[in-house]
């Protein structure tokens, strides 16, 4: 157990700069309180995001520990499955960017969509439905973060799988999430304190939009290879 925890902590510490660059904007976004939030709700948002991320990683680690390293490698997602996940996450990042760039439009659309869905009105617009159902709870956003396609988290899962048990696998991933989460706490603190800054919100929206584009482009070379097209020289 101690060895698994130390391995997870070490990998998380080494991966902290990478995690800050990849998930830092999401941590800042999740920490931004909605209008009218109470003081306690505002203060707890970064912590709830971290707890959601920690719970998701612990669950993944327990599953990896149950399967073992060899089985986990055998179950590595196919190119098409990975692409589907990447495209879904890109859509989530893009929705987050829109929410930051145009918060008033987002709030109006969410209210209209929620009202129509609650009253059972026919044919609410697709935009209204997407916005109304988009996750807003930091714990949920943190849990979703653990599903991002990431080489660092996959390496941590291999370590968890090699830990030899469900408990040890979960502990290894808790160590990874805790050490890497220390860097993300910095991004969350910035997001919580600068939520009222239009410039910061729009800058963060631009970063999330770029992240969505990168997430869409990443699996394309593998998909081209699967359908028989050699990957371009820029794929590497």
UniProtKB/TrEMBL annotation:
Residues 9-210 form the Urease accessory protein UreH-like transmembrane domain. The keyword Membrane applies. Pfam families: DsbD_2. Keywords: Membrane, Transmembrane, Transmembrane helix. It comes from the Bacteria. The keyword Signal does not apply. This is Putative membrane copper tolerance protein. It comes from Sandaracinus amylolyticus.
